[in-house]
Amino acid sequence: WLVKAEPDSRIVNGHDVAFSIDHFEKGKVTSWEGVRNHQAKNYLKNQMKVGHKALFYASNTKIPGVSGLAKIIKEGYPDHNAWDPKHPYYDSKTKKDDPTWFMCDLEFVSRLPHFVPLKLLQHLSTLSVPPSCTPYLKQSDIDGIKKMALLNRGRLSVQPVEEIVYDAVVKLGTEGGWEELLATKGKAKREK
To answer: What is the Cα–Cα distance from 36 to 100, expressed in whole angstroms?
Structure first.
């Protein structure tokens, strides 16, 4: 899975809804609440299972990307915050006896030593073969990255991720070595 959080301060109904890898690491466990998209809600409600792995993604920030790893520790249950008029994610249309919105609980696993920016994943998705600076990536990793929902249906806040793609992102975040790809790409753009 890939779950998106917004690390930068944003006020909703008088509350700051920022949630960064720092918040997650400090708290260790969090409910994945406030999802107000029906497709993402269905993933939370029906498909995310205890033990599933997730990529923690920083969204709606200057440099979006994957900063850490999590795992699901409690399967989907009603998002009770939708019933609280004081909560940032209140929804007056949902009912306690027929809830519209669901959440699950996630546990912090680790930070990635190398932040994996969206720009890197986008760049890798344009390549026909793995770059030489990432000898740990296989062709199947590149092919999987090309199909990522993040790159093809990016706005969804909870997204399925194939295991091969999860593993490829973990390798990128653990091994690094790809930094020159983004530096070279940026330099080429500036020289044009």
So the answer is: 9
pLDDT for residue 189 is more than 90: no
DSSP bridge pairs for 15: 12
Return all residues near 86 (Cβ < 8 A) that are at least 6 apart: 13
Query: Given the DSSP bridges, would you call strands 53-58 and 2-5 parallel, antiparallel or unpaired?
Result: parallel
Strand-pair category, 29-32 with 2-5:
unpaired
Beta-carbon count within 10 A of 75 CB? 17
Tokens of 19: 């949630």
pLDDT of the residue at 182: 87
Q: Is the dihedral of CA 62, 63, 66, 67 positive or negative?
A: negative
The tokens for 17 are: 């809804």
Question: What's residue 185's pLDDT?
Answer: 59
What CA–CA distances, in Å, run from 49 to 74, 105, 165?
7, 10, 18
Beta-bridge mates of residue 32: 104
pLDDT of residue 65: 98
The structure's pTM equals: 0.92
Helix (H, G, I), strand (E, B) or coil at 54: strand
Q: Residue 188 above 90 pLDDT?
A: no
